[in-house]
Specification:
This protein has 193 residues and is of the alpha/beta class. The chain contains six helices and four strands, in the order E-H-H-H-E-H-E-H-E-H. The protein has a single domain, classed as 3-Layer(aba) Sandwich (Rossmann fold), CATH 3.40.50. It has a four-stranded parallel beta sheet. Strand 3, helix 5 and strand 4 form a beta-alpha-beta unit. Helix 4 packs parallel to helix 5. The protein is globular.
Length: 193
């Protein structure tokens, strides 16, 4: 028997990414809050996206996650609208909330897809959600899932990936291979000693 929660929705919140090389510059303007962009930097970023197919895979991955979550909830008897909102791209967080509101959603469970929680990294998601609700949809209620960076399943998955990487090295040097953790891209060694 299906249980329907017609007035509840889930909003997956992600950073966003350009859908084409033409989108790189407007995407970067969003990331840098409209500040002027250095054309050299824009071209470098375009070259990086060109190397991975000319676009960010993040929007499509996030959309697949949303559909998978909605399908799995439905199989368990819960009808719940699952949408995505991108911090720096489309659909924006405001657009996603407006769409949910138009569908009659009154309560939103917000899940920030980044496992890490800092004011700089995730505070913008909270502000964007609450500001949109305050300005346009005062009757809506939003709750955020707690940061999940210490969840044992996440830690196990990260540990498994490290083990997979270390397995690429011969056993006699594996314990001396340095492991570098980086939040974005690959770190560049400093030219200063």
């Amino acid at each position: 028997m299906e249980t329907s929660y017609q007035h509840s929705g889930i909003l997956l919140l992600a950073f966003g990414g350009p859908n084409s090389l033409e989108d790189v510059e407007p995407f970067l303007k969003n990331v840098f809050s409209g500040r002027p962009l250095n054309p050299f930097v824009v071209n470098q970023v375009k070259e990086r996206y060109q190397l991975i197919g000319g676009k960010s895979p993040l929007p499509e991955i996030t959309e697949r996650q949303a559909r998978s979550l909605q399908d799995n909830l439905k199989k368990r008897g819960t009808l719940c609208e699952v949408s995505i909102g991108m911090r720096y791209w489309q659909p924006s967080i405001s657009q996603a909330i407006n769409t949910l509101h138009a569908k009659g959603i009154k309560k939103i469970l917000c899940i920030i897809l980044s496992p890490f929680s800092t004011e700089a990294a995730t505070g913008g998601y909270n502000r964007a959600v609450y500001q949109t609700i305050k300005e346009f949809h005062q009757t809506m209620i939003a709750h955020f899932v707690s940061p999940w960076n210490t969840n044992v399943r996440f830690l196990d998955a990260a540990a498994d990936r490290v083990k997979e990487g270390l397995a690429l090295f011969s056993a006699n040097i594996r314990t001396s291979v340095p492991i570098v953790f980086s939040a974005h891209s690959l770190p560049r060694p400093s030219s200063n000693p």
